[in-house]
Design brief:
alpha/beta; 9-stranded mixed sheet; 19 strands
């Protein structure tokens, strides 16, 4: 079946699922394969649960004479092609967001800002991979006036592939840093892969929202039409800003080119979120959102999903940033923590994953920073931190930390909790 023909079916049944446990009535089931499962084996179950059809790529799972089975060469490729075809039916601005750190927060902030004026389609959570991106695009509806699509990568070529699916008109790379080095090989590999978004927009004559303070991104964006945030530039449309306070919530002031200074008291933790807020403000200005509406959206946004959340328990104040970690974000979190005007600090930090040959040195660099930090108590979790040279207390896993906390309950501390998702440090707030 050609994509145009499949699209006609989709128009009449515009709900897509890839999970046989979640089969809305009359939805289309795409039988994707994973490392430990084959969606083809669940096609019959999906149909029994009410799916209109099942898109499969293994002939042996097709029931002869049952027109509800649609056989294709490759289900994932078909899903991606269908999403691209659907996207091309709309002439709304599409903004693609990527970067080593901050892409989800920037996307969420920008969506909050744009929603003050537009009907916004945006990536839910961090569904930013080869499956999440097409699933997001397939949610575009005629009422949407703009779309924000987050894209992530851990191997070369992935941003290029996702850009070809998304076909963005605008793009933003929040930053480039040391993450997923196991897949990228080096920081240069990270730059090349993130830069694939710039390459796509360069060929399309698209527009980039550029952090004008980043020398790396400025060089990478050569030859592109750029709208800048950060330090002042000569563009008619640009945004600058600075931090007024971070104790612990971030208070900033910002202004559009030629405009008055605006003050925002946010619910965000971390001075590194200044750039995310400025990017969102710039995107709002670009698409006609007024400064007062931008201020309201930035002030009202609350981080979730263990991303720079401030949680107050009966005994302590927690800064929970345990969704993920890499050397760049870990260093930024520690430095921000040390700059906060608080007493009695404690840090519980977990291993950073996917760093390949750079792993030992990356963890050693972090403990060197911790030695100089002056944080009152540092607990390190995982074999990678244990292998580094340092004077701090170490734990093999989060369960050991829980047992220690049950005995040595901290009291009246500000506690930074950060680590890669696999360390499961997000379980700790209930113990503090």
């Amino acid at each position: 079946m050609k994509i145009a023909e499949l699209y006609e079916l989709y128009k009449n049944h515009p709900v897509v699922t890839t999970d046989s446990r979640d089969c809305p009535c009359d939805s289309m089931f795409f039988a994707l394969k994973g490392d430990s499962f084959d969606g083809n084996a669940f096609a019959a179950m999906a149909l029994e649960k009410g799916c209109f059809c099942a898109v499969v790529d293994e002939p042996e799972y097709v029931v002869e004479g049952d027109v509800r089975y649609i056989l294709v060469d490759d289900v994932l490729t078909t899903l991606q092609e269908l999403a691209h075809y659907h996207r091309e039916q709309f002439r709304i601005p599409i903004i693609q967001v990527t970067g080593t750190n901050g892409k989800t927060t920037t996307k969420e902030l920008a969506a909050a800002v744009l929603s003050k004026k537009h009907q916004v389609l945006f990536t839910q959570g961090n569904l930013n991979n080869h499956i999440g991106v097409p699933s997001t695009l397939l949610r575009i509806r005629p009422e949407h006036t703009i779309a924000l699509i987050e894209t992530g990568a851990n191997h070369p070529g992935e941003i290029k592939t996702l850009a070809e699916i998304v076909d963005p008109d605008f793009g933003i790379i929040t930053n480039v840093g040391m993450a997923h080095l196991e897949g990228f090989g080096s920081l240069e590999g990270v730059k090349r892969t993130k830069g694939e978004l710039y390459d796509y927009l360069r060929a399309k004559h698209g527009t980039v929202f550029l952090d004008n303070d980043s020398e790396e991104l400025t060089v990478m964006a050569g030859g592109l039409h750029c709208i800048c945030y950060g330090k002042p530039c000569n563009e008619v449309l640009s945004v600058e800003g600075e931090i007024e306070e971070c104790a612990p919530f971030l208070k900033i002031r910002w202004r559009p080119a030629g405009g008055e200074w605006q003050k925002v008291e946010s619910r965000l933790i971390g001075d590194y979120n200044l750039k995310n807020m400025l990017a969102a403000a710039l995107i709002g200005c670009t698409f006609g959102v007024g400064v007062e509406q931008i201020n309201e959206a930035l002030a009202a946004y609350e981080p979730r999903n263990n991303r720079s959340q401030l949680l107050k328990t009966g005994d302590n104040t927690l800064i929970v940033d345990a969704y993920n970690a890499n050397p760049t974000s870990m260093r930024a979190a520690i430095e921000n923590f040390c700059n906060m005007k608080v007493e009695r600090r404690m840090a519980i930090l977990g291993d950073m994953g996917e760093l390949g040959a750079s792993s030992w040195q990356a963890h050693q660099d972090i403990v060197n920073l911790l030695v100089e930090s002056g944080i009152d108590h540092v607990w390190l979790v995982g074999p990678k931190f244990r292998a580094a040279r340092h004077p701090f207390r170490t734990f093999d896993n989060v369960e050991q930390v829980k047992r220690a906390l049950a005995i040595e309950k901290p009291h009246k501390y500000y506690i930074l909790i950060k680590g890669s998702h696999g360390t499961r440090l997000y379980d700790l707030p209930a113990c503090l």
